[in-house]
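Let us work through a complete example step by step.
Step 1: write down the sequence.
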Amino acid sequence: MRFGVVGVGYWGKNIVRNLLRIPEVSELFIYDTDNKAINKIKPTYPILKIVNDFDELLNIKDIQGIFIITPPETHYELGLKVLERGINLYIEKPFVLKSDHANILINKAKEKNLTLMSGHTFLYSSPVIKIKELIDEGEIGKIEYISFRRINLGIHQQAVNVVWDLLPHDLSMILYWLGEDIKFIEGKSFLKTSFGKHPDVASIHLKFENEILCEGLLSWLSPKKMRETIIIGNKKMIIYNDTEPEEKIKIYDKKVEELEPQTFGEYQLSYRIGDVISPRLNTTEPLFLMINDFINSIKLNKEPKSNGNLGLKVSEIIERIL
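Step 2: predict the structure and record it as tokens.
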């Protein structure tokens, strides 16, 4: 199978690396407007075939799919051209910056019977999949509250703010875990620094249809990198720390219960503190699994886990927040 990658910089080179690990990939074509990116990746992977412009890539005979790993503001225009040529399409997150554009891409893919994937890699990570299993099995009980922190120093972007850059990760995971949509936006606040073109910090409060409260902090201005999510159930609690090298998930057998009053006016709480468990997780690279899902979806003509509809939902929610 022949594939193309548009954009081989910071993240695109990881797409290339994983594509070359897959036996079905017979030829891989790359295109980037930045010659420095091409010159940097070519010596590492001499097997790559370089094309000189985007139209040349679209005209390659029997190309099965194209990966768009370019600045977010270019995703819609490039993606629509790919679908109009009848080529399966992967778009890196954020999918597109307008929900109207997402709907156009989804409808075009349906019209052409093509696979459309939005690049939400965390849906393929072992910790996220394990948490989904724990929730579905009722291990932590009814979810009442979710808190997340996604902060680091940079990388500032010219065309999008910190919400478009970082929130798609957490939204995609929470939508996957809960299987429900946002009911309404509880609150939001943004900080724009003197040197930034867009907001660099965002505090967001959301409520889901089943009354689950969700709050998060996003920042490009932290000296410390943090990727942490806390999920509070009425039976147990989970902390997911993606920066931990090994124990990324910890399940806390803790809860607070109201005791039956013994006398008039008496009010007591019981704090149960049990074991802390860190489950064993698969170590397969999530990006490899996601690319495999894209290729298998093309072969089997099925919807990938991270599809265009998920990209649409994420875009719609961020539009409402902003």
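Step 3: interpret the result. Residues 83 and 109 are 6 Å apart (CA to CA).
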